[in-house]
Specification:
Family: Belongs to the UPF0410 family.
Largest sheet: none
Protein name: Transglycosylase
Organism: Anatilimnocola aggregata
Membrane topology: Multi-pass membrane protein
Oligomer: single chain
Keywords: Cell membrane, Membrane, Transmembrane, Transmembrane helix
Structural class: mainly alpha
Length: 126
């Protein structure tokens, strides 16, 4: 492998790597925007969720259709967002955002009672 071929391969790898990072971030942000409620995780979690959703969504579609789907296409973008949405759903489900382990049925609190007003106390000076 000569120097020119190595540089071309490295440039192609860097381009693919940066494309997946950008695409994963956009897909992860879109999945977080679609899912209602407070979203867990920061920038790295959003990126990982987007890339994982892309792999899962495109993998499922390729398994069902039998053809290879490129992530950077309209159908690839839709299934990648769906895959990231599925990851976010299970992350919230298993992370205890909807259910808390060990809690029984929901107990109703009594109705709030208005506080009593205290009578004004007047002191007479002698």
């Amino acid at each position: 492998m000569d120097n020119a071929q190595f540089l071309e391969t490295a440039q192609q790898f860097a381009n693919t790597f940066l494309t997946w990072i950008g695409f994963g971030t956009i897909v992860g942000l879109l999945a977080k925007a679609i899912m209602p409620g407070k979203d867990p995780g920061g920038a790295v979690a959003t990126l990982a969720m987007g890339i994982g959703g892309t792999v899962i969504g495109c993998g499922i579609l390729a398994f069902v259709q039998g053809t290879r789907v490129t992530p950077i296409s309209p159908i690839g973008f839709c299934v990648a967002t769906g895959g990231a949405f599925i990851i976010l759903f299970f992350y919230k489900l298993l992370g205890g955002y909807w259910f808390v382990e060990g809690e029984g049925p929901i107990k109703r609190r009594p109705a709030r009672i208005a506080p009593r007003r205290r009578a004004a106390v007047v002191y007479e000076d002698d």
